């Protein structure tokens, strides 16, 4: 428990430091986290990161991850990111033929979906931080909501939890804990709203609170289901007591694209 607490405090300080720095510092930090997360996913499927298929997977993820401004500035070609991404998918499909199905269609699907999951999740985190004037407060708001939801779900679930939320996937989570996390997120999110210049509309802020608290927990369950499917306890071991990068960023990966699609960020 001591190791978990110390590591958690260290992780929090590092993340908040780069959030406050913003710009290139934040983008490079997020890109590093995304790279480690993608390697963790590949490892779950027993795909070596430095193999040809692993490298194509990493390039696919980086292509979706890169901020739009960077792509336009540093990749001066006529093709869009999505067009290049499709080309990389075709390369992966060709590999199934060249390897005589040693590299399977299922593995192609896994790499493509992993690239989208990690690439777009972290991409919208970078894009949110780059929003003029409110980017810093917006990212802090979402991070605080996720941490609050996790803490509320843990402590309320431990104290009052009786009904399992989804025992086949995550046996320790309870319905009471989940509701407690959502309520605490709304309370802390409301305080954040009134104490910071993040938003001008409380209605918008409440939508973000609820979307983050609810779908952040779903994102956590998605990663739990993934780990259970591949029979691994944690996505990695880079964070003592906390597992891997995916274990810490699974909620953000799910929430950031959703908030973008809902036009809340």
Keywords:
265 residues; two-stranded antiparallel sheet; 75% helix; mainly alpha; 10 helices; 2 strands; globular
Write a structural description.
β1 and β2 form a beta hairpin. Helix content is 75%, strand content 3%. The two termini are 36 Å apart. Strands 1-2 form a two-stranded antiparallel ribbon. The mean pLDDT is 89. It is mainly alpha-helical. It is built from 10 helices and 2 strands, in the order αααααααββααα.
Low-confidence stretches: none
Strand content of the residues, in percent? under 5%
Distance between the termini: 36 Å
Gyration radius from CA atoms, angstroms:
19 Å
Helix content: over 70%
Order of helices and strands: HHHHHHHEEHHH
Number of helices: 10
Structural class, from helix and strand content?
mainly alpha
Q: Going across the major beta sheet, what is the strand order? A: 1-2
Shape: globular
Tally of extended strands?
Answer: 2
Main sheet: strands, sense, barrel: 2 strands, antiparallel
Please state the average pLDDT score.
89
List the helices and strands and how they pair.
Layout: H1 2-21, H2 23-44, H3 52-65, H4 68-74, H5 81-98, H6 105-129, H7 135-160, E1 164-166, E2 170-174, H8 175-195, H9 202-229, H10 245-261
Antiparallel strand pairs: 1-2
Structure summarized in a few sentences:
The protein has ten helices and two strands, in the order H-H-H-H-H-H-H-E-E-H-H-H. It has helices spanning 2-21, 23-44, 52-65, 68-74, 81-98, 105-129, 135-160, 175-195, 202-229, 245-261; strands spanning 164-166, 170-174.
């Amino acid at each position: 428990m001591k190791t978990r607490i110390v590591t958690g405090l260290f992780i929090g300080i590092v993340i908040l430091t780069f959030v406050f720095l913003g710009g290139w510092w934040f983008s490079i930090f997020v890109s590093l986290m995304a790279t480690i997360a993608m390697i963790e996913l590949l490892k779950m499927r027993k795909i070596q990161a430095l193999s040809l298929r692993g490298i194509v997977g990493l390039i696919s993820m980086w292509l979706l991850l890169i901020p739009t401004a960077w792509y336009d500035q540093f990749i001066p070609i006529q093709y869009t990111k999505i067009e290049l991404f499709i080309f990389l998918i075709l390369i992966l499909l060709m590999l199934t033929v060249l390897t005589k199905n040693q590299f399977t269609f299922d593995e192609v699907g896994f790499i493509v979906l992993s690239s989208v999951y990690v690439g777009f999740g972290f991409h919208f985190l970078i894009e949110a931080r780059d929003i003029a004037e409110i980017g810093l407060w917006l990212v802090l708001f979402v991070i605080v909501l996720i941490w609050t939801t996790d803490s509320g779900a843990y402590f309320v679930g431990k104290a009052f939890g009786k009904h399992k939320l989804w025992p086949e996937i995550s046996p320790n989570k309870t319905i009471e804990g989940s509701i407690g996390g959502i309520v605490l997120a709304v309370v802390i999110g409301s305080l954040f709203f009134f104490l910071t210049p993040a938003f001008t509309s409380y209605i918008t802020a409440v939508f973000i609170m609820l979307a983050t608290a609810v779908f952040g927990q779903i994102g956590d369950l998605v990663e739990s289901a993934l780990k259970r499917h591949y029979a691994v306890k944690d996505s990695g071991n880079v964070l003592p007591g906390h597992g891997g990068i995916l274990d810490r960023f699974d909620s953000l990966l799910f929430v950031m694209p959703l908030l973008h699609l809902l036009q809340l960020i």
